[in-house]
From TrEMBL:
Residues 419-464 are annotated as: Disordered. GO terms for cellular component: cytoplasm. InterPro entries: CRAL-TRIO_dom, CRAL-TRIO_dom_sf, Rho_GTPase_activation_prot, RhoGAP_dom. Residues 13-199 form the CRAL-TRIO domain. The gene is ARHGAP8. Residues 441-450 have a biased composition (Low complexity). This is Rho GTPase activating protein 8.
Length: 464
C-alpha cells in the first residue's frame, strides 16, 4: 500500500488506520520541536476508513508528544468528496480534544507543574487544553482551499484568538523551508506533483528561484554542524566537544533539580545568538541569560546538528531490533550494539549518558526519569541516513535510549586500557557510575577552559 511504513507490524493497536500512512512523524522543526504530518491524500474513501478510529489513532499518536512542544503540518491536497469526513464529525473531534474528562492517570503529574499551581481552580478541561493546545506551537496548512476557509469560519467562534495565531497557510511547499527541516518531511508523491503543477501554473507571477550559494568551509572555531573528528582536531585532540562539555558542566551544577529539564523550548533568537558566539570562538556565560533551559536546548541542538548521529547511521537497523529481544537480554544487546561504534563516538556517548543517568536520579524533583529523557533524546542520538524516522521506529529508538540511561552502570564499562573502550561483561558485584566532569566546576564561559583529570568513579546506586 502506498505510504505504508514497511516496519509497521500487524500487531499495532491501530494497524487498520496506521497502514494508510495518514499520520507521520517527520523529525524536528528548526526550533527543535517534534513535527507530525497529516496527509489528506492518503485517506481512503470514507466507507473504507472508520473516522472514529482515525480520531483515536490521532490521540494515541499525539499523546506521545503533547507534553513537549510540537508542530503539525497539514497537507490538504487530496481531500475530496469521497474521503472527506462530515462536518458533524469534525465538530465532535474538536470537542473530543476539548472535553472535560481528560486522562486522569497523568493529571496528578500535571498539576505538580509549578506553572499550573498558580490557579487553584484549574479544571480538567484546562488540563486537556494544556496538553493538546498549549504545546502545539505551530499548525502549518499546506495548499489551502476555499473549503479550509469555510471550515475555519465555522469553527472560529469555538477557537481562541491565541490558538488562531498559531495557524499559518502555505500555498507552496517551498515556503516550508524557512520553518522546517524540509529534507526530513515525509511528503506524499501526490502532494509533490500537485505542488509542481501549481508552480508551473503561476510561474509567470512567481519570483525566479534563488540560487543556492556553494557551501562555505567551516570556521576554525566552528562548533555546530561539524563532525566529531573536526572538533577533536581543532581542540588539541580533546574527545568531548566543548559545547557538550560546557552545557553539561553548567546543568550539572545548576540544573539537576529543575522541573521539566530538557522539555522546555527557548527563544529562537537566543539560541542562534549563542550558536554564533560559539562558532566564532567567543565566550558564552549562561548566567547572562537567566534561563536554565537555554543550555539544555543548546545541548540538544548540538547533537541534532551533527552531520552524522552520535549512534551512527550504521547502528540504526540494529537498534530498531531491540524490541524483538527478550527483556532479560536487552542490556547485553545494547552492549553488543555499542561495540560497533567508533571509539570517539563511544567516549562521547558514555559522557552524555553518564550525565543523563545523573539527571534521572533526581527525577523526584525534575520529573525527568529515564523514560522521559529517552523521549526527548532518542531522535537526537540516532536517525536514518535517508528521510526521517517513522512513527513505528520511535518505540525501539526510545527504548534503546532509555536502556542506555537507566542501566548506564551495566552497559558502559570503565576503560581497561588507554585508548580503548571495553564492552566485556562485568564480574558479579563490579561497580561503575556516571562519568564525572573533566572540567573545573566553574561557570561555562568559553572555549579555553583548562581540562583537569576526571575524578574517581563513584559507587553504583542500583543494579539491573
Amino acid at each position: 500500500m502506498a505510504g505504508q511504513d514497511p516496519t509497521l507490524s500487524t500487531s499495532h493497536p491501530f494497524y487498520d488506520v496506521a497502514r494508510h500512512g495518514i499520520l507521520q512523524v517527520a523529525g524536528d522543526d528548526r526550533f527543535g520541536r517534534r513535527v507530525v504530518t497529516f496527509s489528506c491524500c492518503r485517506m481512503p474513501p470514507s466507507h473504507e476508513l472508520d473516522h472514529q478510529r482515525l480520531l483515536e489513532y490521532l490521540k494515541y499518536m499525539l499523546d506521545q508528544y503533547v507534553e513537549n512542544d510540537y508542530t503539525i503540518v497539514y497537507f490538504h491536497y487530496g481531500l475530496n468528496s469521497r474521503n472527506k469526513p462530515s462536518l458533524g464529525w469534525l465538530q465532535s473531534a474538536y470537542k473530543e480534544f476539548d472535553r472535560k474528562d481528560g486522562d486522569l492517570t497523568v493529571w496528578p503529574r500535571l498539576v505538580s507543574n509549578s506553572r499550573l499551581k498558580r490557579s487553584s481552580h484549574l479544571s480538567l478541561q484546562k488540563y486537556w487544553d494544556y496538553r493538546y493546545k498549549k504545546n502545539l506551537k505551530s499548525l502549518y496548512v499546506v495548499h489551502p482551499t476555499s473549503f479550509i476557509k469555510v471550515l475555519w469560519n465555522i469553527f472560529k467562534p469555538l477557537i481562541s484568538h491565541k490558538f488562531g495565531k498559531k495557524v499559518t497557510y502555505f500555498n507552496y511547499l517551498s515556503e516550508l523551508h524557512e520553518h522546517l527541516k524540509y529534507d526530513q518531511l515525509i511528503i506524499p508523491p501526490e502532494v509533490l506533483r500537485y505542488d509542481e503543477k501549481l508552480q508551473s501554473l503561476h510561474e509567470g507571477r512567481m519570483p525566479p528561484p534563488t540560487k543556492t550559494p556553494p557551501p562555505r568551509p567551516p570556521l576554525p572555531t566552528q562548533q555546530f554542524g561539524v563532525s566529531l573528528q573536526y572538533l577533536k582536531d581543532k581542540n588539541q585532540g580533546e574527545l568531548i566537544p566543548p559545547v557538550l562539555r560546557f552545557t553539561v558542566t553548567y546543568l550539572r551544577e545548576k540544573g539537576l533539580r529543575t522541573e521539566g529539564l530538557f522539555r522546555r523550548s527557548a527563544s529562537v533568537q537566543t539560541v542562534r545568538e549563542i550558536q554564533r558566539l560559539y562558532n566564532q570562538g567567543k565566550p558564552v556565560n549562561f548566567d547572562d541569560y537567566g534561563d536554565i533551559h537555554i543550555p539544555a536546548v543548546i545541548l540538544k541542538t548540538f547533537l541534532r546538528e551533527l552531520p552524522q548521529p552520535l549512534l551512527t547511521f550504521q547502528a540504526y537497523e540494529q537498534i530498531l531490533g531491540i524490541t524483538c529481544v527478550e527483556s532479560s537480554l536487552r542490556v547485553t544487546c545494547c552492549r553488543q550494539i555499542l561495540r560497533s561504534l567508533p571509539e570517539h563516538n563511544y567516549v562521547v556517548l558514555r559522557y552524555l549518558m553518564g550525565f543523563l543517568h545523573t539527571v534521572s536520579q533526581e527525577s523526584l524533583f525534575n520529573k525527568m526519569n529515564s523514560s522521559n529523557l529517552a523521549c526527548v533524546f532518542g531522535l537526537n542520538l540516532i536517525w536514518p541516513s535517508q528521510g526521517s524516522s517513522s512513527l513505528s521506529a520511535l518505540v525501539p529508538l526510545n527504548l534503546f535510549t532509555e536502556l542506555l540511561i537507566e542501566y548506564y552502570e551495566k552497559i558502559f564499562s570503565a576503560p581497561e586500557a588507554s585508548g580503548e573502550h571495553s564492552l566485556a561483561p562485568r564480574q558479579q558485584g563490579s561497580r561503575a557510575a556516571p562519568l564525572q566532569e573533566a572540567v573545573p566546576r566553574t561557570r561555562a564561559t568559553g572555549l579555553t577552559t583548562p581540562t583537569l583529570p576526571p575524578s574517581p568513579l563513584t559507587a553504583a546506586r542500583r543494579r539491573l
